[in-house]
Amino acid sequence: MLVGIPKETKKAEFRVAAIPAGVRTLCETGHKVFVERRAGEGSGFSDEEFKKAGAEIIEDKKKLFDEVELILKVKEPLLEEYELFHEGQILFTYLHLAADKSLAQALLKAKVVGIAYETVQKDDGFLPLLAPMSEIAGRVAPLVGSFYLAKHKGGSGKFIGGVPGVPPARVTILGGGTVGMNAAKMAAGMRARVAILDVNIERMGYLDDIMPSNVITLMANSYSLEKALPDTDLLIGAVLIPGAKAPRLVTRKMLRLMREGSVIVDVAVDQGGCVETTHPTTQDNPVFEVDSVIHYCVANVPGVYPQTSTLALTNVTLPYVLKIANKGYKNALREDAALARGLNVINGKLTCRGVAKVHNLPFFSIEEVLN
C-alpha cells in the first residue's frame, strides 16, 4: 500500500503520525511510505532519519495526497486540506466529527474512508488510541490551571498546593475516565483538595479505592455541581461519550456561581466541550474570560509535548496501521471489531451514530457499508 504522512497544519501541533521506526516496519512489510518534508521536525525526527528508514520525502503536500492510498495524520484536516482528498482514500487520524459538521460534510463529499482514532473501541469500552493522549491531557490540565490561577495571569492568586496554615485550592473534575483520573492524580500530587464527579457508581468505587485521601468522589448531577462550583478554584472538564458531542454540564447560569479569578480547563473541547461558554482556542491565544472566569480551551494540548505524545500515540496506532496496510481496509475492518468502530465515514455515508445524531444526518451501519 502507498502510505502518506503529511506535516500537521493545526496551530501549535508538533506531533507526527508515524516515527522512523514505524516507517521502517511498514517498508519492511512491503509498503511504500511518503513523508512530507519536515513533518517530524517538531517531534525531533529529521527528514534524514525518515529517509534512512525507507521513506521518500515529498516537498509538495498536494503531490503527497495525490500519490497515496492511506493518509496517516494526528489531528483532523483543516479547511485548506479538504480539497486534497480523493475518492476511496483512507484517512486514519483523530476526527472529532461530532464537533465539526463542516468537516463531516467535506469528508462525505470527498467519499473518503475516514477511520477515527478516538472511536476505535474494544469490546469492554476501552479506547486504545485515545487513552495515551487522554493521559497526557489529564496530567497537563492541573498544571495549566495552576498557572492561570496566578494573579498576573488574571487568576484569583490562590496557589494550588497551599502552605502550612493556608488551605490549598479546590479542584473539581467533571468525569472520572482516563482524563479525569489522570487530572486527579496530578492535582492530588500538587496537594489540592480534589472532587471527581461521575455517574458510574462502580467507577467511583474504584477511584475511591486508588486515590489518596485528598480526593473525594461525588455523584454527577446538577445539585452536586451547583454546590461545588462556589468553592471551586479550578474546574476541569473531562467528560467523554465516544463519537458523540460532549454534554454541556455547566450552563452559563451555573458559571455565575464561580468566584472571580477561578479557572476552567475544558479538556472536552475537541468534542464540543462540557461547559456552555466553551469554544476552542489555540496556544497562540489560549484563554478568554466569561463572567470573570478564565477559560483555557486548547483542543490539542498533547501537541505541545511531542517528544512524549508522538511516541505514546504511535506506539498504539502502528498495529492498526499495519492491519489496514497489510489486509486492506475492508478485511481489516471485518476482522477487527475495535477498528470497525473507528469507521466514521465511507463512500459518502456516515457510520458513527453519535455524529449522525448531533448533525441530523443519515446513519448507516458497518454491515450495510461493507457488504
What is the CATH architecture annotation of the largest domain? 3-Layer(aba) Sandwich
The residue ranges in which pLDDT falls below 50 over 5 or more consecutive positions are: none
What is the H-and-E element order? EHEHEHEEHEHEHEHEHEHEEEHHHEEHH
Number of domains: 2
Mean pLDDT: 96
Give the tally of β-strands: 15
Overall outline: globular
Order of strands in the sheet with most strands: 3-2-1-4-5-6-14-15
Judged by helices, strands and strand pairing, the structural class is alpha/beta
Portion of residues within helices = 25-40%
The name of the CATH topology of the largest domain is: Rossmann fold
How many distinct helices? 14
The CATH H-level superfamily of the largest domain is NAD(P)-binding Rossmann-like Domain
Q: Report the sheet with the most strands, covering strand number, pairing sense and barrel closure.
A: 8 strands, mixed
Structural features, described:
- The chain is of the alpha/beta class.
- The protein folds into two domains: 2-120 and 305-370, NAD(P)-binding Rossmann-like Domain (Rossmann fold, 3-Layer(aba) Sandwich), CATH 3.40.50.720; 149-301, NAD(P)-binding Rossmann-like Domain (Rossmann fold), CATH 3.40.50.
- It has 14 helices and 15 strands.
- The protein has helices at residues 20-28, 47-52, 61-67, 101-110, 131-148, 178-189, 201-210, 222-228, 252-255, 306-327, 329-335, 337-340, 353-359, 366-370, and strands at 2-5, 32-36, 56-58, 70-72, 90-93, 113-116, 170-174, 193-198, 215-219, 234-237, 263-266, 287-290, 293-296, 343-346, 349-350.
- An eight-stranded mixed β-sheet has the order 3-2-1-4-5-6-14-15, sandwiched between helices. It has a seven-stranded mixed β-sheet with strand order 9-8-7-10-11-13-12, with helices on both faces.
- α2 links the parallel β2 and β3 (56-58).
- The longest helix has 22 residues, at 306-327.
- The chain is globular and about 65 Å long.
- The two termini are 22 Å apart.
